[in-house]
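Re-running the complex after MR caught last week's input typo. The corrected sequence lines follow. Everything else is unchanged.
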Amino acid sequence: MLKTFPKGGIHPAENKLTSSREIKRLPVPKVVYVPIAQHIGIPAEIIVDRKDKVEIGQVIAKSGGYVSSNIHSPVAGTVTKLDMIIDTSGYKKQCIVIRTDAKNEANFTETVYPLKKKIVLKPKEILQRISDYGIVGLGGATFPSHVKLNIKGDKKIDCLIINGVECEPYLTADHRLMLEKTEEILVGIQILMSALKVPRAIIGVENNKKDAVAAFKKITATEPKIQVAALQVKYPQGGEKQLVRALLDREVPKNGLPLDVGVIVHNVGTIFAIYQAVQHDLPLIERVVTITGKKMENASNFWVRIGTPIKDLITEVGGLPEGTRKIVNGGPMMGKAIKNTDVPVTKGTSGILVIHADEASRGETKPCIRCGECVTVCPMGLEPHLLMNLSEKGMYKKAGQEDVLTCIECGSCSYVCPSHRPLLDYIRFGKSIVKNLESSKN
Amino acid sequence: MDTPPIVISASPHVHSDRSSKQIMYDVVVAMIPAFLVSLVVFGINALIVTATAVVSCLLFEYLIQKFLMKTEITIWDGSALITGILLAFNLPAGLPIWMIAVGSLVAIGIAKLSFGGLGFNIFNPALVGRVFLLISFPVQMTLWPTAVQNNTTLADAVTGATTLGILKEGLQFGGTMTELGTQIPSHLNLFLGITGGSLGEMSALALLLGGLYLILRKVITWHIPVVVLGTMALMTGIFWLGDPLHYANPVIHLLSGGAILGAFYMATDLVTSPVTKKGMVLFAIGIGVITVVIRLFGAYPEGISFAILIMNAFVPLINKYCKPRRFGSKIKAKIV
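Corrected-run output:
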């Protein structure tokens, strides 16, 4: 019996349409739009100005605080504007617009980096580089990696978990990366293990990616400190707390972090970015993006420069199919619907999902019949139907007492509700108000 | 590139293919075997009772929503249909049509719509209708046409007592199980449905078949029915072992008096039962205990309808105290 987390979870249709499509390289766009808030925390501070010439990988916005991250120029070119553009969040955000220099060879030569196994940097230097090179969690949460790796005080880490779960339907970016960069990821794991001095690491992969499991098993056969664990397919297993519970049987305390139970979790994409930064001196300026959808015949995976407008990606696979009604940045469970295709790819863009009119609308909301399905599937042990009611009626204090803030917004409740109730919408709303209430108290 | 009209909504962007309506119609499907058995046993009378109950439930829901509440008409969501069938299942064949209509009015008008309609009612509507009729028309409501003999003509329906009715009377007047045993149907006949009683409680086999369907379709979980029946078996078993002359054995109790009908189809009503598994178990134990207490010590021979209604009243309280364990709280001992 394969491992999984015990409480809650759902099995949405996997629809991994692109799992056998090799990662291709998207041509460097003519113009890139680089937002300065691509990570959780404080936005970066812009350090370039209009008409400045920038090189590939040059820092263009500096980390704005501890929980923040540097941002590097994804192309060589000229800064044309410092503008406000609509990003994934739907709000206008500050962003740096750079015109790619069509004459600069560096933009168009594809360097092949040979596998480099020997780690020369010392632990401190490794951590510094992760911080300097703008590495953030690439699984979607975009939490600055150096903050996660900064282990303070008496906290002891005995296990590093590599998150290769990719439980979101449709997305295959991590899957492809694990197949195509298996050895690089292994070196990345060793880099982190040496930097943090952790005695062991576990790579967790859901069993719908048997080839990735096999690939890791093969190359870790001689690595006694690194285990590979195939997991039962269940959403939201990619959630940190669920993954730690599934692999190690340890439960992260309420309001706590994996650190509290001696674990650090990193996504495979992040590990690869760390490898690139440490071994090849490359800052985070590109990532793998899955572009997919049921009607997208050429759905595939691409290496995409940060700041590339999503429409470039869509054009590359033949444009939006007839009858497209929704475009989602991310997967169908947690991704954000975007208003137009001018929105740029950022560090957190793991995929673009194009949804046809048949599936774009929600069902009609009916009264709650108290079937309890939402309670059954909630991986955090919450009562979504109750939290929705409390938020709807403005009983925020009570919602706080019912642990609304511990909701991970996985969407399992809304997914199963037979009455199509907008449970998560109201819970998110309730969360934001409870958060404000609590911060105003402090 | 021109962007087509785009829908913006918050995640999740996919939904499971289950709907409330589908759940409701699954329940209807699950009741078909028991309905067929009632047709075999009571003939045209079963059809008349069921049709009357269903039509009047739908009609009253329509009329009240259209003219009194002036809200959306929801008669096709399946819930009024279920109430109608369940009400019919709880009535004796041959009950006057107007009484059935009154029962339907109470079920839909008072128990369901006056609370706010589907999802807001506290008590199981069909049971409220049934109990209202039982209290208002005790004679007609306990006039049970006997099985098999009369399934064609309405005029000369022979009536007889139900299994539990015979036992209740007999034991009260000093009879013993040995004497009464000959007057009640055999266990096998009880199981197959060759017995007296209300429409839907005839065949345990048919009811279990439907119950299994509900569990397989994930409309209900095993918790409520198994715990209700288990509690009843345990309690009646203790009394029977203590004094087999004056107490019926658990098999008789489980197979008669609508125990299976109540446990699988009425106690499990989603709206009026607890949300968590823990709560369901507590709720079901309550139903089992109250049912047995009424059967052994109360005035009524059956009791499960009352037991379910009484426990329905506790559901909000049970929901309040039987919460799921929050992730990351009250963690059991763990080694780091």
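None of the earlier attempt is carried over here. The interface with chain A takes residues 1, 3-16, 18-20, 22-23, 77, 117-120, 270-271, 273-276, 323-329, 331, 334, 336 of chain B (CB under 8 Å). The radius of gyration of chain B is 22 Å.
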